[in-house]
Design brief:
mainly alpha; YtxH domain-containing protein; 2 helices; about 0% strand; rod-shaped; YtxH
Length: about 100
């Protein structure tokens, strides 16, 4: 956040110095400075609004993530249990066949 403030401060100071050194009438320089300050304030407000929207989006994403992960985990556990239920008889049958072949 301080990086953006530094950029905005630098733009403001640079504009002010440039305008003060510019070869214009005082009233034109004042108008230009006022316009630049308004522009900086507007861009700062837009940046703050964008950051607010970003924060809201991150919170919404976390909420969605928190809601979906338990469901997904539960579904995966159920699939593993189903697989084990189906595989156990087959594994037992294969083991019996191996045992039978080892005896012969």
């Amino acid at each position: 956040m301080s990086f953006f403030k530094g950029i905005l401060f630098g733009v403001g100071v640079g504009s002010a110095v440039g305008l003060l050194l510019a070869p214009r009438k005082g009233s034109k320089t004042q108008e230009k400075m006022i316009d630049d300050v308004r522009d900086i304030v507007q861009r700062t407000d837009e940046l703050n609004e964008s950051l607010k929207n970003f924060r809201t989006a991150v919170i919404d994403l976390k909420t969605t993530f928190d809601a979906l992960v338990p469901e997904f985990t539960s579904g995966v556990k159920k699939d593993i249990e189903d697989f084990n239920f189906q595989a156990e008889p087959r594994i037992k049958q294969i083991q019996e066949t191996i045992d039978h072949l080892s005896i012969d």
